[in-house]
Design brief:
With 246 residues, the chain is mainly β. The chain has one domain. The chain is built from one helix and 25 strands. Strands 2, 4, 7, 10, 13, 14, 16, 17, 19, 21, 23 and 24 form a twelve-stranded mixed sheet that branches. Strands 1, 3, 5, 6, 9, 12, 15, 18, 20, 22 and 25 form an eleven-stranded parallel sheet that branches. β23 and β24 form a beta hairpin. The longest helix is centred in the C-terminal third of the chain and has 4 residues, at 176-179. The radius of gyration is 18 Å and the shape is globular. The model has no long low-confidence stretch (mean pLDDT 96).
Length: 246
C-alpha cells in the first residue's frame, strides 16, 4: 500500500493521482511538512495524514474509518476539502481555518476541529453523533485548545442528531470529557469570540433524551429546519441554541 513521506516540501507542493478509468486505488497515509494540494478523485485514504506544516486543498474519493487529518501550521487561505464518503470515526484536527468542507455522504461519529474559523460545511447526508468545533485546537487539547473562532455556514440535506456545533466555546455534551480528554466545565465565559451563521438541516432528532445542538460565544442566527426557524433552546426536544456565552 502506498504511503507518502514529504521531504523539503512547501505550501506550493502538489500531489495528483491519475487512475485508469474504472479503477480505484488506496493511499495508506502521508507524513511530512507542508502540502499545498492533494488531488485523487478515485483515491481512498486508508491511513492518517499527519503534517507538521499546513494543508491547503484535499480532494479524494473516500476516507476510511478512524483516519485522522492533522495539521500543525496555518495556511494563507485555509483548508479546502472535498470527498465522496467519510466513514465513522474520522477526525480533522486543523491548525487554522477550514474554508470549505464538502462531502456527499453522512458525517457520522466525525470530529471536525479548526483552531480558527470554519467558513462552510456542506453534506448531502446526515450529521450524526459528530462534533464541529470552531476555535478549538485539537492538537493542543484540553482547555488550552480553546480560542476564538466563528462558523459561517453549515448545511446538511439530511438529519441532525446527537451532534454538537460550537464557536469560541465548547458544547455542553454529555460525553465531551471522554471524547476530549482534559476538558472540564465551565466550557465558556473565557472572553473568546465566535458567532454561528447560517445553519440549515432537513430535520432534527425529535426523540432525543440528551442535549444536542449549537453553542457560541457570540450570536447564533436562526437555525432553519425545513420551513421552521429555531431561535432558542427547545427544552422538550433537548435541542440547544445557546448563544452569547462569552
Amino acid at each position: 500500500m502506498l504511503k507518502i513521506h514529504l521531504t523539503d516540501s512547501n505550501p506550493k507542493t502538489s500531489i495528483k493521482f491519475n487512475v485508469r478509468a474504472g479503477k480505484e486505488a488506496d493511499l495508506g497515509g502521508i507524513t511530512g511538512g507542508d502540502l499545498g494540494k492533494i488531488i485523487g478523485q478515485k483515491i481512498d485514504l486508508t491511513g492518517d495524514v499527519n503534517l507538521t506544516g499546513s494543508l491547503g486543498f484535499m480532494h479524494l474519493d473516500d476516507l476510511d474509518s478512524d483516519v485522522s487529518i492533522i495539521t500543525q501550521e496555518a495556511t494563507k487561505k485555509g483548508l479546502k476539502f472535498k470527498a465522496d464518503q467519510i466513514m465513522d470515526g474520522v477526525t480533522f484536527s486543523i491548525a487554522d481555518t477550514i474554508k470549505f468542507f464538502k462531502v456527499d455522504g453522512d458525517l457520522q461519529d466525525v470530529i471536525i476541529s479548526a483552531a480558527d474559523d470554519i467558513k462552510k460545511i456542506y453534506t448531502k447526508g446526515d450529521i450524526i453523533d459528530s462534533y464541529i468545533l470552531a476555535g478549538y485546537n485539537l492538537d493542543l487539547g484540553g482547555m488550552e485548545g480553546l480560542s476564538s473562532g466563528s462558523i459561517g455556514k453549515i448545511t446538511a440535506k439530511g438529519d441532525f442528531t446527537g451532534s454538537y456545533i460550537s464557536a469560541g466555546v465548547l458544547p455542553d455534551a454529555p460525553d465531551i470529557q471522554s471524547v476530549f480528554p482534559g476538558v472540564y466545565p465551565p466550557y465558556w465565559g473565557f472572553g473568546y469570540t465566535g458567532d454561528i451563521g447560517k445553519v440549515k438541516f432537513k430535520t432534527i432528532d425529535l426523540n432525543a433524551d440528551e442535549d444536542f445542538g449549537l453553542w457560541a460565544a457570540g450570536t447564533i442566527k436562526p437555525v432553519k429546519v425545513k420551513n421552521l426557524k429555531i431561535t432558542e433552546t427547545v427544552p422538550e426536544l433537548h435541542f440547544c441554541v445557546e448563544g452569547n456565552l462569552g
